């Protein structure tokens, strides 16, 4: 499989401020990569380097096999980009703005505008300056997707979108992946990424602190389990590795389980189980542990 993004030891300092501290990361063709991190972690810095909007202090970045610093023109034709602060001329109508960008991109881009606008519920006749933040974001999404680029680089793409439009956005991303396109999207919200991403990287203070498939993260995350039995049970039987917050109230046992629930299920099976409820692992919680500032106890 082709490597679409190849970052090696990428570093960026802003004077004495650190933007990125030695980022090494590969993204493969046809994957949706969720780039997560709290505010100020360095997500936009990374994306701006990929687009050659800023230059790294050290390390290298290859995008679609090219160097963003020397091949920017060729690259921009092959990728779709949504900036965190998408800005266009406010006096035009949405249709004029998108038609202009579509003509620049060529490749049938203009023809895809009406369908994309309809799916995102974007009014093409409105003037850009009259749009709410969410509607401006939709304009940004249409211009990023309209030429079906090989690579989509999206900085906080769902910011300002209502839940219905967020869902449409996630469909667009999945369709792009099914079409062989690659998606690199940043976010600070796990839940919106876990629905679509194949892999996730978590950035904290300019460093990658986790990099894994969403499925693997899910397996490691903590879930809450409630078991109901046909009679009282002894809590000591359920004092198992990975089981915490164990509470038994008559016939009902609740606990939290990290990783595989196998040992718990086997212990429960020694009794007659009349009810079982297992809540989805809380990935948000797992992520928050990665978000703790350095020195606050968590070791990634
Ligand atoms: N132009 C700049 N001048 C000085 N410091 C900067 C500049 N741009 C970014 N930084 C600093 O670099 C660090 C990373 O910022 P960056 O914008 O890349 O983070 P982010 O993960 O995209 O966060 P956000 O979600 O808030 O945009 C922050 O400490 C920020 O203050």
The percentage helix is 25-40%
Give the name of the CATH architecture of the largest domain.
Answer: 3-Layer(aba) Sandwich
The best one-word shape is elongated
**Helix and strand run:** EEEHEHEHHHEHEHEEHEEEHEH
Q: Describe the main β-sheet briefly.
A: 6 strands, mixed
Sequence of strands across the biggest β-sheet: 5-6-7-3-8-9
Rg for CA atoms: 23 Å
Distance between the ends = 29 Å
- How much is the average pLDDT? 90
Number of domains: 2
Total DSSP E strands: 13
Would you mind describing this structure in some detail?
The strands form 3 sheets. Strands 5-6-7-3-8-9 form a 6-stranded mixed sheet, sandwiched between helices. The two termini are 29 Å apart. The protein has 2 domains: 3-217, 3-Layer(aba) Sandwich (Rossmann fold), CATH 3.40.50; 222-280, Alpha-Beta Plaits (2-Layer Sandwich), CATH 3.30.70. Helix content is 31%, strand content 30%. The chain contains 10 helices and 13 strands. The chain has 300 residues and is an alpha/beta fold. The protein binds adenosine-5'-triphosphate. The site of adenosine-5'-triphosphate has 13 residues, from β2 and α1.
What keyword list fits this structure?
single chain; 300 residues; alpha/beta; Rossmann fold; Alpha-Beta Plaits; 6-stranded mixed β-sheet; 4-stranded antiparallel β-sheet; 10 helices; 31% helix; binds adenosine-5'-triphosphate
What's the topology here?
Blueprint: E1 3-14, E2 17-28, E3 32-36, H1 43-50, E4 58-63, H2 72-78, E5 79-82, H3 94-105, H4 113-120, H5 133-145, E6 151-155, H6 163-178, E7 182-187, H7 190-194, E8 199-204, E9 207-213, H8 214-220, E10 222-229, E11 243-249, E12 252-258, H9 262-268, E13 273-278, H10 283-291
Parallel strand pairs: 3-7, 3-8, 5-6, 6-7
Antiparallel strand pairs: 1-2, 1-4, 8-9, 10-12, 10-13, 11-12
The protein binds adenosine-5'-triphosphate.
The site of adenosine-5'-triphosphate has 13 residues, from strand 2 and helix 1.
Keywords: Antibiotic resistance, ATP-binding, Nucleotide-binding, Transport
InterPro entries: AAA+_ATPase, ABC_transporter-like_ATP-bd, ABC_transporter-like_CS, ABC_transporter_ATP-binding, P-loop_NTPase
GO molecular function, one term: ATP binding
């Amino acid at each position: 499989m082709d490597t679409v993004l190849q970052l090696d030891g990428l570093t960026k300092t802003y004077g004495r401020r650190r933007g990125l501290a030695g980022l090494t990361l590969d993204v493969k063709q046809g994957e949706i990569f969720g780039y997560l991190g709290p505010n100020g972690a360095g997500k936009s810095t990374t994306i701006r380097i990929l687009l050659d909007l800023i230059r790294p202090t050290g390390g290298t970045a290859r995008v679609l096999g090219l160097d963003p610093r020397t091949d920017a023109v060729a690259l921009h034709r092959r990728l779709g980009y949504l900036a965190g602060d998408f800005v266009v001329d406010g006096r035009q109508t949405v249709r004029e703005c998108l038609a202009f960008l579509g003509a620049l991109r060529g490749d049938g881009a203009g023809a895809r505008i009406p369908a994309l606008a309809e799916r995102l519920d974007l009014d093409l006749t409105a003037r850009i300056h009259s749009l709410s933040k969410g509607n401006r974001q939709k304009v940004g999404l249409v211009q990023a997707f309209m030429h079906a680029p090989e690579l989509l680089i999206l900085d906080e793409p769902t910011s300002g979108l209502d839940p219905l439009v967020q869902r449409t956005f996630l469909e667009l991303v999945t369709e792009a992946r099914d079409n062989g396109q690659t998606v690199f999207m940043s976010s600070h919200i796990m839940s919106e990424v876990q629905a679509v991403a194949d892999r996730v990287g978590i950035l904290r203070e300019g460093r990658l602190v986790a990099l894994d498939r969403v499925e693997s993260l899910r397996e490691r995350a903590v879930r809450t389990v409630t078991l109901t039995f046909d009679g009282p049970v002894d809590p000591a039987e359920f004092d198992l590795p990975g089981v915490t917050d164990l509470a038994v109230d008559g016939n009902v046992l609740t606990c939290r389980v990290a990783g595989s629930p196998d040992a718990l299920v086997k212990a429960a099976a020694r009794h007659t189980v009349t009810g079982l409820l297992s809540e989805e692992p809380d990935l948000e919680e797992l992520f928050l542990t990665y978000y703790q500032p350095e020195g606050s106890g968590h070791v990634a």
